[in-house]
Write a structure and sequence with these properties.
heterotrimer; A alpha/beta (415); B alpha+beta (480); C alpha+beta (113); A: 415 residues; alpha/beta; FAD/NAD(P)-binding domain; 3 domains; seven-stranded mixed sheet; B: 480 residues; alpha+beta; D-Amino Acid Oxidase, Chain A, domain 2; Arc Repressor Mutant, subunit A; eight-stranded mixed sheet; 23 strands
């Protein structure tokens, strides 16, 4: 069985960034395993622009953004396999890789970075009432058909869910010749970025219905119509509010979930992000297995995925060199109004700054973000507006970290 | 014009088993179905359980065929290369007053010749750590099993076709008239002539039977809704868990499936429309409430799909397996609701040996082969840690469905079989591509392109299920 | 007074512009520029894709090299839909120049080997 110092599972934005960082830190024996034909992951089908503003200070399309990292991977001569998938992995990092041409190979990795991305919740997961006909499709799948293969999945379309992919697809479908009748969102606020509501819906006069969801889909073979009903605070349909809309397609943009079957199989503990529980180096609770990008928690901006990939690559390099800080653990807990925080643990002996990434549960205005440890305030930061669709990052410098005892809490307080 | 000796209407599990039994003999057999694939309705949407036979009233057809059918599963599944496991079932009593009912069921089992055992609360908790701790006892039926219902039907028909049966899909029977010694069976497309008709039309069996004579039974369809949970953790339950049966059926069960998923359901609602397979939130909530009474920790956040199936419940409350009153050459096999799946091998044998044999000479074929070509899967290779086949054969390393680890090799294998899939759903049923947690989100575009390429058509021609369920509606940018 | 969302970056500032073109609510200077442009001559960059002749069922992504007037979006899309290329493609390759005389080109945004 051949051994590999650093195996990177997934050659998207997170995986490539991790590989590049580790290589720069002197790790040479790396292998990126990518299931698709090309490196780049989901960005290959995200042909719209708006990527790279933080990373490159310019606005790039998805394929342009990823190409810059592919170029670095090539230049740094980092080995990668495409059309390859890790089908099994043990706690001891024995990894089974299936490749299109070579068949199955089992390798021993010394460290692993999980960068497997996320998947879309579908009609089954949200249990849409009614028929199970053709014409109900997730936004990402519709995007692949349209942007990669050149096929429209429908002509008269209702989009359920106002996450960014749904909004982006509303514009794309309109530009490519379909009629997007409306976007319906069960929450009283959109889960997409404001700029996407402006440039994807408002620009094309596509209505966004809030607090409204699909109460029934009707269609014998192909979708014929959907019923949209208003929902109350408990997300229950309100009788008498039905809107019947004739359409041939319902596109679902109802959430992304970290894709971590490989970690589930080895009982690697998960956090409330539905990704793995990690420390400040993006190391999971299994030493030497790191996780980053959308398989750790779903991001809204790819530049931050890249950043997190580098952090995991750095962590893996340190681990391989035996320099990863260990020591007592500081537990990180989100409270009052915060739905999750990454990382969930910090090593006491850590010598580097730590960035907390978190999301709020509901939109809030004019609040204090309070970071405290064992009842003592460590930091208090004013936040004018926080919305669930935008991940917030707060960096805590080493000197502030020294104020932290064995636990740290993040919470919001009204101003 | 080709004339048939026997024509079977309905390629569900019953029709499939009858066709397979007939294929042993030198006969011209036609198997018709109105759907675009075999086993597309009731046989596709059920609990995937091989019942032990403790429940049916002794002396009924249900009791007789259930028990006989159960015993035939090991051999048939070996021959048809279908995943089957005798995991055993537990019918649980949650209240003290239910213990006498367990005893009645045990008595009934004895009359039906089904081995069972009454277990104490402690024994049940040991076998099922996630069971409601209030459990008072259970009836354990070790011969109950779980089976891959999809490939059971597909491979049975494949085997029948390999042995000479002719399969006609997308043929909906519109009328049946006797013309001399032959029945003329007219579909929306063409006419078939046959000496013998076997009506195995499932939820539509009463309509077919009424085409030749007035009948004294009727199908009153009962819809059953289910949850499907992902298979990421083993051990939620280790057996099929039933509540105590009621007049509506065996109740809402919790079971693992051969693919490692968990099924929770079914509801039981009378529904005039046998084509109605919609799901609705109140019914699903009710299933959830009842199931969690037995297994409180069911992780409903792991639900990846909900579905509904139609049970062809008959007004006779038993299977109808008999000659038409006016003519022995017309055989009705109707009302095959639960325990229909497990009964199907015994029904198939009975129909051929007891009902067809008196009508026509049954001469055994010399070259009859009861086995289908072995079905190799990367997933199985992974479980068995034996990659020899995979590494020696092309395309078995190329994964198409990430969640279920289905490879191009497997897809091309099923496409090359004698009952190949034409739709995304038919392919999914055979290979499991699209059955996992992302429900085809990643693999459906790949599957559509593979099907299009294989059949030499545009991806626009590929359907999800029937011919009017196309997936793509327009080719853009200079395409047609 | 007009209000709208800035689309320049993911921050999505809520901009207000008064009758004298005074902009408030912007976090950075680009927001001010955007607000003025939005009120005088709204423009957008368009991304789309074109068919790859020598590949089955494959498109390659493209974009306009600069902004085009908002009112011309669908006309530009019609022009893009007429285009096709042959692989290999390289990012920055020009597929069509000075489209509709608007002074912008259609550029490839993806490398296909």
């Amino acid at each position: 069985m051949r051994t590999i110092d650093l195996l990177i599972i997934g050659g998207g934005s997170a995986g490539m960034a991790a590989a590049i960082q580790a290589k720069k830190e002197g790790i040479d024996d790396i292998l990126i395993v990518e299931r698709d034909e090309n490196l780049g992951g989901i960005l290959n089908q995200c042909i719209h622009n708006g990527f790279g503003l933080t990373e490159f200070k310019e606005e790039l399309t998805g394929p342009e953004y990823l190409s810059r990292f592919v170029k670095q991977v090539e230049e740094l001569k980092i080995p990668y396999m495409t059309n390859s998938m890790v089908i099994d992995m043990t706690k001891d990092k024995i990894v089974t890789i299936s490749n299109k041409d070579k068949g199955v190979e089992i390798v021993q990795a010394k460290a692993i970075v999980m960068a497997t991305g996320c998947y879309e919740r579908g009609a089954g997961a949200i249990q849409i009432p009614g028929d199970r006909c053709a014409g109900i499709i997730t936004a990402g799948t519709a995007q692949k058909y349209l942007n990669i293969h050149g096929y429209l999945c429908g002509k008269r379309i209702v989009i359920l869910g106002s996450g960014d992919i749904g909004l982006i697809m509303a514009r794309r479908l309109t530009l490519e010749g379909a009629k997007v009748i409306c976007v319906s969102e069960i929450m009283p606020y959109s889960n997409g970025l404001n700029r996407n509501i402006a440039q994807c819906l408002n620009d094309y006069n596509i209505p966004l219905y809030l607090s409204r969801s699909v109460s029934k889909v009707i269609g014998k073979d192909r979708l014929e119509k959907v019923i949209l009903s208003a929902v109350d605070e408990k997300m229950q349909f309100i009788p008498g509010t039905e809107m019947e809309i004739e359409c041939d397609t319902l596109i679902l943009s109802v959430g992304l979930i970290p894709y971590i079957s490989l970690l589930d199989n080895i009982d690697c503990p998960a956090s409330s992000t539905k990704g793995a529980k990690v420390n400040e180096h993006m190391e999971t609770m299994i030493p030497g297995i790191f996780s980053c990008g959308n398989c750790l928690h779903v991001h809204d901006v790819v530049d931050f995925v890249t950043d997190e990939g580098r952090l995991a690559g750095h962590g893996a390099a340190m681990y391989l060199k035996g320099k990863l800080a260990r020591g007592n653990k500081i537990v990180v807990t989100p409270k009052d109004g915060i739905s999750y925080v990454v990382p969930q643990e910090i090593n006491r002996d850590n010598q580097e700054d730590v960035t907390f990434k978190f999301r709020v549960r509901t939109p809030v205005k004019d609040v204090w973000l309070i970071i405290e440890s064992n009842g003592q305030q460590v930091a208090k930061i004013m936040k004018p507006v926080l919305i669930p669709s935008e991940m917030v990052m707060v960096k805590l410098s080493k000197d502030k970290l020294d104020l932290i005892k064995d636990e740290v809490t993040l919470r919001l307080e009204a101003r | 014009m080709e004339k048939f000796d026997v024509l079977i209407i309905g390629a569900g599990v019953t029709g499939a088993m009858i066709a397979r039994n007939l294929s042993k003999y030198d006969l011209k057999v036609a198997l018709l179905d109105k759907e675009n694939d075999v086993g597309n309705l009731t046989s596709n949407a059920n609990s995937a359980i091989v019942h032990s036979g403790y429940d049916p009233v002794p002396g009924t057809n249900k009791a007789k065929f259930n028990v006989a059918g159960n015993a035939m599963f090991d051999k048939i599944c070996e021959e048809l290369d279908v995943h089957f496991e005798r995991v055993g079932s537990l019918t649980v009593a949650l209240y003290d007053e239910q213990i006498p009912v367990l005893k009645e069921l045990a008595e009934r089992s004895k009359q039906n010749n089904v081995p069972v055992e009454i277990l104490s609360a402690e024994e049940v908790k040991k076998m099922e750590p996630n069971i409601n701790p209030c459990v008072k006892g259970a009836l354990f039926a070790p011969t109950a099993g779980i089976v891959d219902v999809f490939n059971f039907v597909c491979h049975a028909v494949e085997n029948a076709v390999d042995n000479g049966v002719k399969l006609f899909l997308n043929e909906e029977v519109k009328s049946i008239v006797k013309e001399g010694d032959y029945y003329k069976v007219v579909t929306q497309k063409e006419e078939f002539f046959t000496k013998i008709v076997i009506n195995a039309a499932g939820a539509f069996a009463d309509r077919i039977a009424s085409m030749v004579e007035p009948i004294d039974w009727k199908i009153t369809p009962r819809k059953g809704e289910y949850f499907v949970l992902d298979h990421y953790k083993a051990g939620l339950v280790n057996h099929t868990i039933f509540p105590l049966p009621s007049e509506k059926g065996k109740g809402i069960l919790v079971t693992m499936t051969t693919s490692g998923n968990y099924l929770v359901g079914p509801s039981s609602e009378l529904d005039d429309d046998p084509n109605d397979v919609t799901t609705d939130p109140p019914t699903l909530r009710n299933i959830r409430a009842q199931a969690t009474e037995m297994v409180p920790s069911i992780p409903f956040n792991q639900v990846i799909r909900v579905f509904a199936g139609t049970r062809p419940t008959c007004t006779r409350h038993d299977f109808v397996i008999e000659y038409a009153k006016s003519d022995k050459n017309f055989i009705n096999v109707g009302g095959i609701e639960s325990p229909g799946f497990v009964s199907s091998p015994a029904i198939g044998e009975y129909v051929v040996e007891r009902l067809v044999r008196p009508l026509i000479e049954l001469k055994e074929k010399k070259d009859y082969n009861p086995c289908v070509r072995k079905y190799h899967r990367l997933y199985n290779a992974m479980v068995e840690q034996d990659y020899k086949f995979v590494n020696e054969h092309e395309n078995y390393g190329q994964i198409i469905c990430n969640c279920e680890k289905v490879t191009l090799g497997e897809i091309l294998d099923v496409l090359s079989r004698s009952v190949p899939p034409h739709s995304v759903k038919a392919l999914k049923r055979r290979t499991r591509a699209g059955f996992g947690k992302c429900q085809g989100g990643f693999c459906q575009p790949r599957v559509v392109l593979i099907l299009a390429k294989y059949y030499g058509v545009s991806p626009m021609e590929i359907s999800y299920d029937g011919e009017f369920s196309k997936i793509l509606l327009e080719k853009i940018k200079g395409g047609r | 007074m007009k209000e709208f969302t800035c689309i320049i970056c993911p921050r999505g500032c809520r901009l207000s512009v008064d009758d004298n073109m005074n902009v408030t609510g912007n976090f950075c200077p680009r927001g001010k520029q955007y607000a003025v442009s939005e009120l005088t001559n709204p423009v957008r960059t368009i991304t789309s894709s074109v068919r790859v002749n020598n590949r089955e069922d494959l498109l390659v992504s493209v974009k306009t090299s600069g902004s085009i007037p908002k009112g011309k979006i669908f006309e530009v899309m019609e022009e893009i839909n007429k285009l096709s290329v042959s692989a290999p493609t390289r990012i920055g390759d020009v597929v069509a120049s000075n489209i509709l005389g608007l002074g912008v080109d259609i550029l490839i945004t993806k490398n296909i080997d």
